[in-house]
Specification:
- The complex is a heterodimer of chains A (266) and B (319).
- Chain A has one domain.
- The longest helix of chain A is centred in the first third of the chain and has 31 residues.
- Chain A is globular and about 60 Å long.
- Chain A has twelve helices and no strands.
- Chain A starts with a helix and ends with a helix.
- Chain B is 5% helix and 53% strand.
- Chain B has one helix and 28 strands.
- Chain B has a four-stranded antiparallel beta sheet, with no helix packed on it. A four-stranded antiparallel beta sheet of chain B has the order 4-5-6-7, with no helix packed on it.
- The two termini of chain B are 28 Å apart.
- The chains are: A mainly alpha (266), B mainly beta (319).
- Chains A and B meet through loops of A and strand 27 of B.
């Protein structure tokens, strides 16, 4: 019961923070919409791009990148959560949370879930706008994508949480953008099918193939078209577990970040 | 007895599912692909003569006529066995043809000879050869069997042939390179596509005058790629579908207002079209990409594209 209350409390705090920061939702949506409306217009491929799974027929480029853009929303939100962790730590409000008698791993996982719920909300807001722009999935597709989006968001949130345990100050966040977010996004199937990547570079193809973000995007892509990509699901789940474990380790005062931080300060 | 019952059961089941079979001619493979309209999968591939293009069923669907262009013959296939049973004399390089409503006379366009050959499918003999314009291509017979229309690609005309006398009685000038003609169900109008002109002309059958010309504009696609070829009209008079060749799109036209409602993305170089029997599905042959796209005519959405042979060209549907 206490756990449930604590979980609700953490989720509520995240939701409150999310809804109070209108600019955050706006910027979360503006970024992928720029890609969808402007970038995709340049690459529209009005003559259609080759059929790959899970698509049954030819599609235009804007249809192709929607799952990838859902991915970038989740990726950014995962990073945003990690940013707010750093902020919380600097402001001292993290201590309040971590000082509660509940086990720390539980608090971190709860925090992760809360972040993933925010991601799901953002992705559906984006899908709604995409729908208004005539990029439609079936009703079943929208429903079957919920668990896929949640799992993918969880994995990317866990990555963010793990990274946040290493970032000592807010200023270092720019490094995360340059060294994590952008490479992850560009070296994935979000913007282009991987076979296309393979035509120009075998090395880049294999890096993209092993990029967990690719699997998160493919999991969502298949689910939006009512299909299950088992490989992507397993990889996403495993990655989520590994990053969560690392994050829990990173937030352990005896081993992870706090100890390193202590050393750094000393 | 048991066996007969089982067959009867199966027969009634297949009646219930109302699956059609769609025959597709593959120009480069010298084959026909047979598609099941329920599963939307190729269930059979049949070898036929060289360069099969236009294909058409007789009225009881026992025979399939195949224009084997490079074999210079119209082949007759027994549908039950999938075997070619004989060839019909067809003149050189038959490409498209139309079966007269009498279920007997075939009107065949001979592209290289500038003639239309009339073949009696029962006597297997040539009834007549009618001189038409240069490079005859599209063929259609009016629903009342009175008119046979041929288009000539280079002369840019529709040729009106009186089916009773097999004589050319009139011509109508249309846009450049007319490819295909289609009568409305009541036979009052004729839709003709002009490949190079990029237009579809609607001709009043009684006056033989063009009453409307439709042009197309697909955002992001160069004008030159918009080359109208195959046309299909729904029986309820609601829609017309026009295959737009290398623009990889099928235009959906409101058949009453003649406004283009939508452009649907299909495979590369979309050529001919055919409805399933209930007209709920429309099949397109996409020559360059070697596949067939399936359009839901209620939702106006492409629901699937499936691989067939190389350079699919013509389509015929058997209920």
């Amino acid at each position: 019961m206490t756990f449930w209350v604590a979980f609700l409390g953490i989720t509520k705090r995240e939701l409150l923070r999310f809804f109070q920061q209108r600019a955050r939702l706006l910027s979360a949506l503006v970024r992928p919409l720029l890609w969808l409306v402007v970038f995709a217009a340049g690459f529209r491929a009005a003559l259609g791009i080759a059929i790959i799974e899970p698509y049954d027929t030819y599609i235009t480029y804007d249809v192709y990148i929607v799952p990838g853009l859902a991915g970038i929303i989740m990726l950014f939100n995962g990073m945003q959560s990690s940013l707010s962790m750093v902020y919380d730590r600097e402001m001292g409000s993290m201590k309040v949370m971590l000082m509660s008698p509940l086990p720390r791993p539980f608090l971190l996982i709860a925090r992760l879930m809360a972040g993933a719920i925010i991601s799901v909300l953002q992705v559906y807001a984006f899908l709604l706008i995409a729908w208004l722009l005539d990029i439609e999935m079936t009703a079943v597709g929208y429903i079957s994508a919920v668990p896929a989006i949640f799992l993918a968001a969880l994995m990317l949130g866990a990555l963010g949480l793990f990274l946040s345990s290493f970032i000592k100050q807010l200023e270092n966040f720019a490094g995360v953008m340059n060294f994590v977010v952008f490479p992850m996004f560009f070296l994935s199937s979000a913007l282009y099918p991987l076979w296309k990547m393979r035509e120009s570079s075998e090395v880049l193809y294999w890096i993209s193939e092993y990029n967990p973000f690719t699997h998160a995007v493919e999991l969502v892509r298949f689910a939006l078209y009512e299909q299950m990509n088992a490989e992507a699901a397993v990889v996403t789940l495993m990655t989520a577990v590994v990053f969560s474990a690392l994050a829990i380790w990173g937030y352990d005062p005896k081993k992870g970040m706090f100890r390193r931080q202590g050393k750094g300060a000393g | 007895m048991k066996r007969m019952l089982a067959i009867a059961c199966l027969a009634s089941l297949s009646q219930l599912s109302l699956a059609d079979t769609i025959y597709v001619s593959n120009e480069k493979d010298d084959t026909l692909s047979v598609i099941d309209s329920d599963t939307l999968e190729v269930i059979k591939t049949i070898e036929v003569g060289m360069r099969p293009r236009g294909i058409i069923f007789n009225q009881d669907y026992t025979h399939l006529y195949i224009c084997a262009s490079d074999s210079d013959a119209v082949q007759v296939m027994d549908v039950a066995t999938g075997r070619i049973i004989h060839n019909l004399p067809s003149g050189e390089d038959p490409e498209q043809f139309a079966l007269h409503t009498d279920n007997r006379r075939l009107y065949i366009a001979n592209e290289d000879d500038a003639v239309v050959t009339v073949v009696d499918t029962q006597k297997r003999s040539v009834d007549a050869q009618i001189d038409v314009g240069v490079e005859p291509e599209g063929m259609a017979v009016s629903p009342d069997g009175k008119w046979v229309i041929n288009t000539s690609e280079t002369t840019n005309m529709l040729h009106w042939i009186d089916a009773a006398t097999n004589e050319l009685v009139a011509n109508t000038l249309v846009g450049q390179r007319p490819r295909h003609v289609e009568f409305t169900k009541d036979g009052s109008l004729l839709w003709a596509s002009s490949e190079i002109g990029g237009t579809v002309s609607i001709v009043d059958v009684e006056s033989r005058r063009i009453i409307k010309e439709i042009s197309f504009r697909i955002p992001g696609v160069h004008r030159d790629k918009v080359q109208p070829v195959g046309i299909k009209l729904t029986d309820n008079g609601k829609y017309a579908f026009v295959a737009l060749g290398p623009s990889n799109h099928v235009a959906v036209i409101d058949a009453k207002t003649y406004e283009v409602i939508d452009y649907l993305l299909v495979g590369r170089r979309v050529w001919q079209l055919a409805f399933a029997n209930d007209q709920k599905l429309l099949f397109t042959t996409n020559g360059v990409s070697g596949d067939v796209s399936v359009i839901d005519t209620d939702d106006l959405k492409v629901i699937k594209t499936l691989r067939v042979g190389r350079y699919p060209w013509g389509l015929a549907v058997k209920p």
